[in-house]
Amino acid sequence: MRFVALIGVLALAVVPQAWAAGTSAKTCDVRAFGAKGDGTTKDTAAIQEAIDTCAGYKKGGVVKLSGGTFLSGPISLKSNITLNIAEGATLLGSPDREDYPKVTFARQPTVQPLVGSVNAENITITGGGTIDGNGHIWWEYVHAVKEAGVLGNDHPRPMGLVFDHSKHIRVEGITIQNAGFWQIVPYYADDLVFRNLKILAPHSPNTDAIDPFSSSNIVIDHVFSSVGDDNVAIKSGAINSPGPDAPSKNIMITDCTFENGHGLSIGSEIAGGVQNVHAERIHFKGTDQGIRIKANRDRGNDVSNISFKDIDMVDVKTAILITEYYPKAAPDGEVPSMPMGRLTPRFHNIAIENVHATGSGSAGTIVGLPESPVEGLSLKNVDLQAKTGLKIAYAKVAFDNVKVKADEGENLTVAPTATVAGK
């Protein structure tokens, strides 16, 4: 488990300048720059001035929000800044849509996130308080809009936190909730830690909790999320991407609890590929999916060296879903083989171990493409109890102590296009 050891060292070794500065770092209280913190006055300019001023110090500094609700439009973090939102304080997104300038992100038109960084490093967000995107104004805005969840649509919504081409990032000990769109997005970012967080936006459209996008060396640890879409979605490139796209890789997800949401996902947009993802000690309760790897011929690439271990699921609709036909779980009838291309999904070297699921609607579906079957997939010590059983097609799978108990129909259905060793 060299990868696990590497991630452990990474988590301990990340000590950005702003954190290491300790008491020598300057403190910029946003109230000293004119912020009111009364929940009605817009404090955007005061908060941004505090950030810019602290960033001008040699060792950076701490921008402090305490004792109130600070209403704000988008703010931009700079290198060597700690944003300290004290317990009981809230950074609240402006309810005025015109406060969010149009920008280009991931080659697509959208609007500026509530909190963002571009080409910055050594950033910490902490303090015990809350970042609230005031998302209901955006959720109402996209009600019944076609493809509202696709980046680049004609009804853009602000994300919560975006770290764009940034590195050495730590977000710890706060609540992040109600972004208009995805909650936290590292984009072409490196060396990030997300620890001891609550991420909340239940019953809302496309409010993924954490979406690493073409980003590497990430720790997601002790995160509770209850959201309206993926609890975690690892991405790397858009649908029909012209390329080039960088992969997402070296991601450790540990000791997390996921409730409302679509589970722990890799995909669906993975035109740059995904490698070296390790998820361990994850509890799912009432999510739509548990373990999910998803793509299609218009958005795939290499997905390999993936492991899920010590996972328990309660009342999850689909326990395991590995599909190269997203948004469908499986094709309708026979599918003709197609030539391999740059965007063909290639799923291989995937380990699922010590998984227990009860009360599921479906034990799961594992299905590859005729031209690109799922290969090197192992299930060990897996116990799935569900209304319907596990279905496998276009895949090579190894079982070791796998139990599937279906209330209806077959426990396990293996298509002629698949092989399952050890069943």
TrEMBL record:
Domain of life: Bacteria
SMART domains (UniProt xref): PbH1
GO molecular-function terms, A-Z: polygalacturonase activity
Cleaved signal peptide residues: 1-20
Hydrolase among keywords: yes
All copies of domain Rhamnogalacturonase A/B/Epimerase-like pectate lyase, residue ranges: 29-83
PROSITE patterns, alphabetized: POLYGALACTURONASE
GO annotation terms (biological process): carbohydrate metabolic process
Keywords: Glycosidase, Hydrolase, Signal
Pfam families from the UniProt entry: Glyco_hydro_28, Pect-lyase_RHGA_epim
Family per similarity comment: Belongs to the glycosyl hydrolase 28 family.
Protein name as annotated: Polygalacturonase
